[in-house]
Design a protein that fits this description.
Largest sheet: 7 strands, mixed
Number of helices: 8
CATH architecture: 3-Layer(aba) Sandwich
CATH topology: Rossmann fold
Strand order of the largest sheet: 3-11-10-9-4-8-5
Shape: globular
Number of domains: 1
Helix content: 25-40%
Low-confidence stretches: 1-13
Mean pLDDT: 89
Order of helices and strands: EEEHHHEHEHHEEEEHHEE
């Protein structure tokens, strides 16, 4: 594959549905359009302990947003062609993007950067971002079911409500609402909703957005959340690196969000460095690592695009699903 002077490292084996590009190969695909974000923009969307730079946004996320914009345009064209064939009046439906990956891998930053970039493309001025955290079951319900220690696992979400939300947005309903989650109180915020009104693009970010459907009984219809996605991204990294990033983030939060009196994790604010590292490592090893290994990582191959990160959080290669 040759594009704008870049040669993709194509796997000649038929065993992979992806083509892999190095960071330099991917950066060469960026067109001459000026970068629409500033250093202040990047600082605003950067996640805790995620050192994403303006240079990374320019060389990795700008071409990624352009590719997604092209996908959106092509999907719109296909929709119009199908509507004409069926004799229907063509009405554009939102282009839905799923962003998946482990805790602390940087998927939230990826989603926020894409939201900022895609909102600056002429064909998608209205871009909404919703995280699946809002569809976690309330803590009281998790306690009732005895799965509080499995928060973030697939069974800790109201998966039916999440699918219904995305399906309603995708179908073009004028207004759809979703619950709001607080990372301070570590729970759903009562009587608070986020409102989504007919976006051009909807980005859905979460741990398990690429999970396969749950088969409740033989022969019963089953839908996965990803059935409503037009494109999807999996943010990938070596588990040992993600573990280290998780501990670094925990240490940062200990002196910021955890120090708030209303924080669910306020008791962690007074931990020593050694105690905090030990506690964060235990949480990772007993909760986040098993969730990654058994539920999140197996969905990687379902993505349209895989962003592979190196040990310093930077994107080292991009894998695109072959069309």
């Amino acid at each position: 594959m040759v594009q704008n002077g870049a040669v993709a490292s194509t796997d000649t084996s038929s065993s992979t549905p992806f083509v892999t590009l190095s960071r330099d190969e991917w950066a060469a695909l960026a067109d001459s359009t000026p970068l629409p974000l500033t250093e202040d923009d990047v600082r605003r969307v950067r996640g805790v302990a995620d050192p994403i730079s303006l240079e990374e946004v320019d060389t990795v996320y700008r071409p990624l947003s352009r590719l997604l914009d092209l996908y959106s345009q092509a999907t719109g064209g296909l929709h119009r062609a199908t509507s004409e064939f069926l004799g229907e009046r063509a009405s554009r439906t939102p282009f839905v993007i799923g962003v998946a990956g482990s805790v602390a891998v940087g998927k939230s930053t990826t989603a926020r950067v894409l939201r900022e970039l895609m909102a600056r493309w002429p064909d998608s001025p209205h871009v909404e971002l919703v995280t699946t955290d809002g569809f976690l079951l309330p803590n009281a319900e998790l306690e009732k079911r005895g799965i509080m220690a499995r928060k973030g696992f697939p069974e800790s979400y109201d998966r039916r409500a999440l699918r219904r939300f995305v399906a309603d947005v995708k179908s073009g309903l004028p207004e759809v609402t979703a619950p709001v989650y607080s990372h301070v109180t570590y729970d759903i915020v009562p009587d608070e909703r986020v409102v989504v009104r007919r976006p051009d693009v909807l980005i859905v970010e979460g741990l398990n957005v690429l999970a396969p459907p749950v088969l409740r009984e033989p022969g019963a219809p089953a839908f996965a959340l990803s059935d409503y996605f037009d494109a999807s991204i999996y943010v990938d990294a070596r588990p040992s690196d993600v573990r280290r990033w998780y501990i670094d983030r925990f240490l940062t939060l200990r002196g910021t969000a955890f120090s708030r009196p209303d924080s669910y994790f306020h008791t962690y604010a007074d931990l020593s460095d050694e105690e905090a590292v030990e506690r964060a490592g235990h949480i990772w090893d007993t909760i986040n690592a098993p969730n990654l290994v058994h539920n999140i990582a197996p969905t990687r191959s379902r993505a349209t695009i895989i962003l592979n990160k190196s040990a310093d959080h930077s994107i080292e290669s991009v894998r695109l699903r072959k069309l």
